[in-house]
Task: structure prediction
Amino acid sequence: MALHVIFMSLAFFVALPVGIALRALKHSWHGLIVVAFYSLCALGCASGTLYTKLTPNMYEGSAHASHGYLVLILSLCLSAVDIARFFVRLYLFIKNKSKFTLKPFWQNVVLGRNEVHDVTAKYTGLDMEEPSEFDVAEMKPLGLDESSEPLHVRRNIPIATIQTQDLDDIDDNETASWVNSSRSSHVAHNYTRSGLSERTVFETGSPQGSRHSDETLHDFRLPSLIEPQAPLIRIGQGIFATLERALVFAAFGMTLSGIVVYTGGCRESYVNGCLAHLIKGGIFWCYGLVTFARYLGSFSEMGWAWNLSPIGEHVSAEFVESLVIFLYGITNTWMERFGVHSGDPYTTKQVQHISIAVMFWFAGLVGMGIESKRVRRWLAASAAAAVGPAEVSEPPSYRGSFNPFPALVIGVTGAAMSAHAQTYLFQVQIHELWGRLLLGFSVLRCFTYFFVWLGPPRSILPSRPPTEALASFFLACGGLVFIFSTEEITIAAMRKGRDDMMMFLNVAVAITCFAFCWTFCIVAMKGWLKSRSTTRYPLSAP
Result:
């Protein structure tokens, strides 16, 4: 059993997150990590099967093994999509009928980066000394002059779009002279693409010499099937990325079910209460880790790290939070009556839980409505109509999302559960503990909105509000204590003389800190690899 735990933990909590990070970067080691992941899974399955054969079945009807195989099948399906895309790229590369060289084959087919693969060889011998001035860029919004105005005034100046602007704004009309002198031209262009692009090097008389590199590189790329831009394809890519990351949280769920089966808990009348604590507490725990990853800078390309999105508009993080809250409420409303005979009266506890679920349901709907741009236009229609056809500028606060309903729902849940009636005093105390932790998350999230409202984000870089670091810790730790408050665990603690609040809190804090350190290492590793593959640019002062 120990080998099964070790191999599966290494596969899903080490190899899988590293593989996801490498895949996002299209790193050459991604394939090696995938092989390591499936090797560890195979060893874990083998050791688990051996343990099952050598020990009697002490938990009849256990679904741990079947659910685990479903998670593995999902991972295999995602890998099959990657394999299919590899063969599509291979087919298009062969169909292109260009001269075979190893580097373009590796970049375009194996890594799927779709880089230039047939550039004329005449430029390979040119001596292009990298100018120090050319590599210096500054990330700044348009329309903001370097003035002596105070910072709090400049923060509230409406901005247009984000640009990546070179420090020397010199005309770039002579590409050939730039090739030979390496110090003659710079270019300013919008930060609407995924990376910085300089002008492509062409002959002096080439008709393509004045075209932007993003256009001219298309002449040397594989067909557009490799880089689909259709909305349906983008939705498919989003679903793939979501399912890939969901495997980590599914592995956490399998860890909980494995602990239950190994310890023999959650039987008979305890099943529903045990499932409620494990599922709900697990959701809070997982989202606490996601919130901490957002604080570190994850999802900053979508503007989820309290920053301006560098690549266009995306669904806000608050919309996703409201959607999850809505789905939880609309499903849990009916699940509270599981195991009850038709016609049985509603108990006080059922009314308490159902009313909380209804709050989740409709508060989630309101939260999603607030995040809708169309609904926002409807809400602003009266004010806009009062000034007629004149152009109305948006206030600086429109650059961020200040939706309090997700925080409100979690805060009210924590406050209500702090007063939840229990049979024993220790059960009341531990419910009060995790209820206050969730309430603390709600208060800190409101503080985040308050400070960000005063100074809306003006940069594409993650702003990392310190209140979110604390809020994520409170949320994750509260979810873990929620799991610890399961009736069987509290009764077992009282029987063993372990009903000590400080012990439960310290264990939860220790595990949460360990998980945060794991999250930090994964996010930092991805950022480190990204920084090694892209040009570094100094940051400008506010």
Summary: The chain has 18 helices and three strands. The longest strand covers residues 137-141.
